[in-house]
């Protein structure tokens, strides 16, 4: 009886320790569930359900991995993915993009791959999305190679077999294997620069000048303009300023930034654009909410003031037409930098608008109009989905442009 009692105490202590470890992951899981579902409101419940499911399946988690933060995170991320997929099916949401994640099921925690672990930083998940897209592109490229060439590349760079293992399996000397690998990589590059040139340039896998096209540092992306929904965005690079940006050939300049560290490690235009919009959101909305921000050029304090169509600075009127827009005007006394960002851009810079765009893919801007909101003068703007009736309405206080409300309609 005494031995049994000690066993129970040990078991209770172990369970308590396990719950403490799970609780440490809660904040990360909330962020992960919000990203995977696109529904921050449901993220808390989904994270809690993930933790409960992990508790119920704790016996499937290897004891020796209990103290490994990496293993726990991978295991819980796999469970969260499945929980979010079930939530999507029950709510009629298409979460097919989650299949790009290759998390194992809770039955196989030991088979998880380190490369499949999303970071706790929401935007680092874009790297995971890129990995899935790049893997598909690589599959297509490999399929165009001769079988013997394809086999040796897969063994070395996908299965990560050593030179000695591959040479022994193929009956080659290691020197001969190295030569075959070298020729295989050249063949793969030729495929990327010919049959798959457009896709390879989209992900930055080949130099546009090497391919003999896009000499001016411009390339068409697969991203539809969120303002007009009539043209695909052009990604450009300006050597003089070091700026990379995105513009619509038919209507607006969407985003641009010269600090490439913001999107370091990313190649997909959509991922780079997401990072830029996130950075610009902080920049512009600090100017609106606090009246100042840090200059993009010199990093010194930069003042912002709200402008209305009738007092838009002359230097910017040509960009926005005769009617003009409400917006925020920025001026830096230190370096002389000036910029005016109008309401359409301020709207797409909002995190909620970016999430709406990611969910629906093709959207278009709803022009601003004057309304009365809770007894005060306001502006209404937002975005409409091009594929269904979903829309995002953003209400601004007319004189300050501070956000009074954000409403999403899905019916």
UniProtKB/TrEMBL annotation:
Sorted alphabetically, the keyword list is: DNA-binding, Sigma factor, Transcription, Transcription regulation
Domain called RNA polymerase sigma-70 region: residue spans: 24-93
Which GO molecular-function terms appear in the entry?
DNA binding; sigma factor activity
User: What's the superkingdom here?
Assistant: Bacteria
Q: Where is the RNA polymerase sigma factor 70 region 4 type domain?
A: 136-188
Q: Which GO terms describe its biological process?
A: DNA-templated transcription initiation
Read off the InterPro entries from this record: RNA_pol_sigma-70-like, RNA_pol_sigma-70_dom, RNA_pol_sigma70_r2, RNA_pol_sigma70_r4_t2, RNA_pol_sigma_r2, RNA_pol_sigma_r3/r4-like, WH-like_DNA-bd_sf
Q: Which Gene3D superfamilies match?
A: 1.10.1740.10, Winged helix-like DNA-binding domain superfamily/Winged helix DNA-binding domain
Specify the signal sequence span.
Answer: none
**Which protein family is it in?**
Belongs to the sigma-70 factor family. ECF subfamily.
Query: Under what name is this protein listed?
Result: RNA polymerase sigma factor
Lineage summary: Bacteria, Bacillati, Chloroflexota, Ktedonobacteria, Ktedonobacterales
């Amino acid at each position: 009886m005494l031995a049994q009692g000690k066993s129970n105490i040990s078991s209770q202590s172990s369970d308590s320790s396990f719950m403490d470890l799970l609780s440490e992951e809660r904040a990360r899981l909330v962020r992960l569930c919000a990203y995977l579902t696109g529904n921050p409101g449901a993220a808390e419940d989904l994270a809690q359900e993930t933790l409960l499911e992990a508790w119920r399946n704790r016996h499937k988690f290897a004891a020796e991995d209990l103290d490994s933060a990496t293993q726990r995170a991978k295991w819980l991320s796999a469970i969260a993915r499945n929980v979010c997929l079930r939530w999507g099916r029950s709510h009629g949401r298409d979460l097919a993009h989650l299949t790009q994640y290759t998390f194992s099921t809770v039955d196989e925690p030991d088979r998880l791959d380190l490369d499949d672990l999303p970071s706790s930083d929401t935007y680092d998940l874009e790297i995971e999305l890129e990995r899935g897209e790049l893997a598909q592109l690589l599959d297509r490229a490999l399929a165009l190679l001769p079988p013997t060439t394809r086999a040796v590349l897969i063994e070395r760079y996908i299965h990560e077999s050593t030179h000695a293992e591959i040479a022994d399996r193929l009956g080659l000397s290691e020197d001969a294997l190295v030569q075959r690998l070298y020729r295989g990589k050249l063949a793969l590059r030729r495929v990327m620069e010919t049959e798959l040139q457009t896709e390879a340039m989209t992900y930055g896998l080949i130099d546009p000048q090497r391919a003999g096209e896009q000499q001016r540092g411009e390339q068409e992306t697969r991203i539809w303009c969120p303002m007009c929904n009539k043209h695909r965005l052009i990604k450009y690079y300006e050597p003089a300023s070091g700026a990379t940006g995105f513009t619509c050939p038919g209507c607006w300049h969407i985003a641009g930034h010269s600090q490439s560290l913001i999107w370091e490690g990313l190649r997909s235009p959509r991922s780079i654009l997401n990072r830029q919009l996130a950075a610009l959101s902080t920049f512009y909305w600090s100017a609106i909410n606090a009246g100042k921000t840090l200059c993009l050029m010199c990093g010194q304090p930069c003042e912002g003031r709200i402008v209305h169509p009738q007092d838009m600075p002359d230097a910017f009127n040509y960009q926005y037409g005769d009617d003009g827009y409400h917006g925020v005007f920025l001026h830096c006394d230190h370096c002389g930098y000036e910029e005016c960002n109008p309401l359409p851009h301020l709207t797409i810079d909002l995190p909620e608008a970016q999430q709406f765009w990611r969910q629906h893919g093709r959207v278009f801007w709803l022009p601003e109009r004057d309304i009365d909101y809770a007894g005060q003068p306001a502006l209404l703007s937002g975005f409409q989905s091009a594929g269904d009736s979903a829309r995002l309405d953003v209400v601004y206080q007319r004189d300050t442009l501070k956000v009074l409300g954000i409403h999403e309609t899905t019916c």
